[in-house]
């Protein structure tokens, strides 16, 4: 499954001003850049593809989200959980995709099927659906401990975030108690 720090990462985003500011600034800046589709030519050079099915799909994305909203969700997921997932879908169930759904990473779990092939399990709304690697697009950050799943940037600063939250809770408790400390430290040596 996605690393357990995922929940604390999303929680840190919601309550920690450092995390919120960093993630918001990165995602808001990224969506101002234009999306372009390029194709690699035989010589190794890249050629701009201003009109293509993929360019149209990325511009429209799906009925509920434009590309800016979808990109914001995708980048936030990658930054906070280390993973983001897109599910290209076809309205008829057959043929080329005509929309992309951004799947929440906390609903995805890496697994293998009976043939030993890599699959993804999506659990949501009381149902579990399985996808092959070819059916989902997985964006991930580097993880030193897991080749399949990415690691959140929050993991690297987890102890700092936790210390900040403890100090904040202590200060709030101190003020709620009328400035009376909850503990006192006694030492046999003189303070220096």
Provide the structure class: alpha+beta
* Overall geometric form: elongated
Biggest beta sheet attributes: 3 strands, antiparallel
- Supply the number of helical segments: 6
Main sheet: strand order: 4-3-8
From N to C, what is the helix and strand string? Answer: HHEEHHEEEEEEHH
Percentage beta strand: 15-25%
End-to-end Cα distance: 50 Å
Number of strands: 8
Radius of gyration, in angstroms, nearest whole number:
22 Å
Average predicted local confidence, pLDDT: 82
Helix content: 25-40%
Unreliably modeled segments: 1-6
Explain what the structure shows:
It is a single chain. With 192 residues, the chain is an alpha+beta fold. Helices cover 37% and strands 21% of the residues. It is built from six helices and eight strands, in the order ααββααββββββαα. The strands form three sheets. The chain has a three-stranded antiparallel β-sheet. It has a three-stranded antiparallel β-sheet with strand order 5-6-7, with no helix packed on it. Strands 1-2 form a two-stranded antiparallel sheet. A hairpin with a 5-residue loop joins strand 5 and strand 6 (118-124). Helix 1 (5-15) crosses helix 2 and helix 2 (17-30) crosses helix 4 (67-81). The longest helix is centred in the last third of the chain and has 19 residues, at 158-176. The protein is elongated and about 75 Å long. Mean pLDDT is 82; it is low at 1-6.
């Amino acid at each position: 499954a996605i690393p357990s720090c995922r929940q604390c990462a999303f929680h840190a985003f919601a309550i920690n001003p450092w995390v919120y500011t960093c993630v918001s600034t990165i995602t808001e800046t990224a969506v101002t850049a234009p999306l372009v589709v390029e194709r690699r030519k035989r010589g190794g050079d890249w050629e701009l593809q201003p009109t293509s099915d993929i360019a149209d799909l990325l511009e429209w994305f799906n009925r509920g989200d434009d590309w800016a909203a979808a990109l914001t969700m995708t980048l936030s997921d990658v930054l906070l959980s280390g993973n983001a997932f897109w599910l290209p879908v076809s309205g008829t169930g057959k043929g080329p995709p005509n929309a992309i759904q951004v799947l929440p990473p906390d609903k995805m779990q890496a697994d293998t099927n009976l043939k030993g092939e890599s699959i993804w399990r999506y659990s949501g709304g009381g149902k579990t659906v399985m996808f092959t690697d070819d059916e989902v697009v997985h964006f991930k950050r580097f993880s030193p401990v897991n080749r399949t799943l990415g690691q959140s940037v929050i993991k690297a600063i987890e102890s700092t975030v936790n210390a900040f939250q403890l100090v904040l809770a202590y200060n709030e408790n101190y003020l709620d108690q009328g400035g009376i400390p909850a503990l006192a430290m006694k030492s046999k040596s003189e303070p220096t």
